Structures are given as structure tokens and as C-alpha cells.
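README, section 4: Worked example with a bound small molecule

Sections 1 through 3 covered apo chains. Here we extend the same pipeline to holo records, where the ligand is supplied as SMILES alongside the sequence. The molecule in this example is copper (II) ion. Nothing else about the input changes; the structure line simply encodes the ligand pose together with the chain.
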Amino acid sequence: MLALGILSALVATFVVGFVLHRPPTMSAVANPSGQGAKIHLEVAGSASSAIIFPRPDDPHPTWVSYLPTTILKVPANSVVTMQLDQEDSARGLNNPFWSQAQGIIGGTFHMTYYDNNGRPQQGDFSALDAAANAAHTFAIPDLGVFVPLEALNPAAPAGSMNVITFSFRTGTPGVYHWQCFVPCGSGTVNGNGGPMQTLGYMVGLLVVQ
Ligand SMILES: [Cu+2]
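The generated complex, written as C-alpha cells:
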């Protein structure tokens, strides 16, 4: 009986810990600078060493990651503003088509970044200057939203981030898949495994309600 009890406890722990494991859900907050809701995420080269929302106990501490989570709850029929603090280096897009922003209000994203001399700059952009400079993308295919995220310039001071902001409109309630389109899963087949297929890293859900 004791052995059976222990076995049952181990199985239950496994099921809860691995099979049912899901990243937490983060709800959008009221946008402090205007209408609608806002989501603030960090994009890091490894989950454990992120600057703002590090996950030191992450089961995959070296995986590229959107942090703190990739399950995002936003209101229906409203404007959602995203702020993405991007600190990863260049990985490059396989398809240069994705270096063009699509589906965002006004057609442009605002970005603070660092030039080749390590000086801070900012501007509004509709695309990256080169597909090779993409670190990741934020894409919600069913909403037509595609935003390339510029890599941090190697000349930037240590601990810097590009801050990328843009807005899009949600429609009817539903659960929409979102993901990165840069094959950034280092060490997996064509870079498309691992974090590219796992909720909480380069794949997420947009819960519109
Ligand atoms: Cu990515």
C-alpha cells in the first residue's frame, strides 16, 4: 500500500509538473498613455539571464524567450499597445518578407535603439533596414500582425535594450496563436524546435475576451 501510495504521488507530481504545465497568464493593463490596453514583455537570448523578468529556475534556462510569459489576455474590440524590450543579438530572418511590419496601427513601430557608435537613437519605422538584423519577430498570423524586432547593436552598452512599441486592434473574442518567425531555436533542426514550439518561449496565446 505504501509503495502504491508513493507511486501514485510520483505519477501525480509528474502529470502536474510536466504534462499540465503551462506558463502563467498575464492580463493587459490600462494603457497609461492613451486608449486601450497595454502589454509589456521582454525578449531575451536566454530565459535565466533576462534583465527585467529573469526566470532563474526555468527548466530551459538557455532558451530564447519572451518574458515573463507568453499567454496574454487582452480585451476584445480594442486597441492593444505592445512594449517589447528586446535585448538579444541578431539571428536573421530566412524570409526577408517578414522584415516588413504589417497589421499595426499607422503602419509603423516606434523604436529606441543604439547606433554603430553605441549612441542611443530613436525613430518610427515600417521595416528593418536588413533582414539579417532581426533578432525575433512578434507575429499574430490570424490578426495579420507581423512586427520584426531589431537586434541590439553589439556597440550598445552592456545591459541595454531596444524598446519597440506598436499598437494593433483586436476583434471578436477568441484564442489566437502568436509566435516568432526567426528560426531562433539554436541547436534544433533548422532552428525551428525547442523554444519555437513551446509555450512560454517563442510561442504564445493571445486570449481575446
Ligand atoms: Cu525568436
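What to look for in the output: Helices lie at 2-19. The two ends are 47 Å apart (CA to CA).

Section 5 describes how to batch many such records.
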